[in-house]
Amino acid sequence: MDMPTALGNTLQQLQADPRRYKLFGIYWWPIKALLKRHSYGADQLYMLGSYQDQDTAALVPEMGLEETLRVAFEEYGRNARYPHPGGMVEDPDGEMVLLYDEDAGI
Fold first, then answer.
1. Which contacts (CB < 8 Å, 24+ apart) does range 91-97 have?
2. Whether this model's pTM surpasses 0.90
3. Any bridge partners for residue 96, and if so which?
4. What is the pLDDT of residues 7-40, one digit of tens each?
5. Cβ contacts of residue 103 below 8 Å, gap of 6+?
6. Among 21, 62, 90, 91, which has the minimal tally of Cβ within 10 Å of its Cβ?
7. How far apart are CA 13 and CA 20, in angstroms?
8. At what angle do helices 3-16 and 28-37 cross, to 10 degrees?
C-alpha cells in the first residue's frame, strides 16, 4: 500500500467534510494517529489534536499497519453505504458504540 498517497487522500476527504471521520468507525483512532505520525497536524486539519477516546480505541483489534489501513478503508466504505444514525458505529463484534472526537466537535 502506498501510505503517503492513502493518507493524503484521507486528509483531502476530511478537509472536504470533517464529518467523514465517523465513517472510519472505531478505526478513526489509528487513522488519526497515523495522520499525525506522518506530519499532518491542526494546520492541515483542525481535528488532529490530542484527544483520543480510550474506550473506543481499545476496541480496535491488534493487527499490522497495512491490515489496519485495509480494514479502516473497508469500514469507511461500509459506513458510507450503510450509515448508522447519531454517530453510532459497529465494533468488530457488531455492538453499537458512539464515536465522538472532542477535537472534531461533531
1. 91/25, 91/26, 91/59, 92/26, 92/59, 92/61, 97/26, 97/56, 97/59
2. yes
3. 90
4. 999 999 999 999 999 999 999 999 999 999 999 9
5. 46, 47, 48, 49, 50, 51
6. 62
7. 7
8. 110
Q: Is 97 helix (H, G, I), strand (E, B) or coil?
A: strand
Residue with cell 500500500: 1
C-alpha cell at 90: 459497529
Tell the residue number behind the cell numbers 459497529, with chain if given: 90
Question: Euclidean distance between the first and final Cα of the chain, in Å?
Answer: 30
Q: With the C-alpha atoms ordered 86, 29, 80, 20, is the resulting torsion angle positive or negative?
A: positive
